[in-house]
UniProtKB/TrEMBL annotation:
Gene3D superfamilies membership: Transcription Factor, Ets-1
Superkingdom of this protein's organism: Eukaryota
The name this protein goes by in its record: 1091_t:CDS:1
InterPro entries: SAM/pointed_sf
Length: 200
């Protein structure tokens, strides 16, 4: 049997209990496992197929009764072998991309008119057609306690499904504008960061 960093499901499914123990021992330092955490698998004669079916809840319960730390570490390792964490990461990235592009499309809708410079402030204060979703931590830190809820809800709403990419590229310069100097060049950099880039 050859160990890779993370072996394939096909390989693990053919393992004997001894192979499972050997694998866990190779991951002992990386996962901060103790000998007694690994011995549980030996005592329960866990072969490869059974190993792949174990969840964190299984490992916390009888007959394994592992502490939370080892249970999380080993169940995470099983997910890595099965490719579940990578698949979830890809799903999260796809969802973030979809949210990002839908927000960008909404923000890039051509204006009904081009405002004069005297009307620019009023135009910039006009809410988007749909409030932009903001990650809860950023929403609470930068907006919730600083802006009236009646005004805030027209522009931004908190959501666990908010796109971090939208936040980083479009909203953060508004929430936390850069510090500027007093030269004309520094003013242009401020204008680009706060106005041009978010509305591009």
């Amino acid at each position: 049997m050859s160990f890779q960093s993370v072996p394939s499901v096909e390989e693990v499914s053919k393992w004997s209990p001894k192979n499972v123990i050997t694998f866990l021992e190779t991951k002992k330092d990386e996962l901060f496992l103790r000998d007694r955490d690994i011995k549980v698998f030996e005592d329960n004669w866990v072969a490869g197929r059974a190993f792949l079916e174990l969840s964190k809840d299984d490992l916390l319960a009888s007959p394994y009764n592992l502490p939370d730390g080892p249970a999380r570490a080993i169940s995470g390792l099983i997910k890595d072998v099965k490719g579940e964490r990578e698949a979830q990461k890809l799903r999260d990235e796809d969802e973030d991309d979809a949210l990002y592009f839908s927000t960008i499309d909404m923000l890039q809708t051509p204006p009904e008119y081009i405002p004069s410079r005297w009307d620019l402030l009023l135009w910039l204060q006009k809410p988007p057609s749909t409030p932009v979703n903001i990650p809860p931590a950023m929403y609470n830190a930068y907006f919730r306690s600083r802006i009236s809820p009646n005004i805030l809800s027209q522009f931004f709403v908190t959501s666990d499904k908010a796109s971090f990419r939208t936040w980083a590229e479009c909203i953060q310069p508004i929430a936390k504008p850069p510090v500027i100097g007093t030269t004309e060049d520094s003013f242009h950099a401020f204008w680009d960061a706060l106005i041009v880039n978010p509305f591009r």
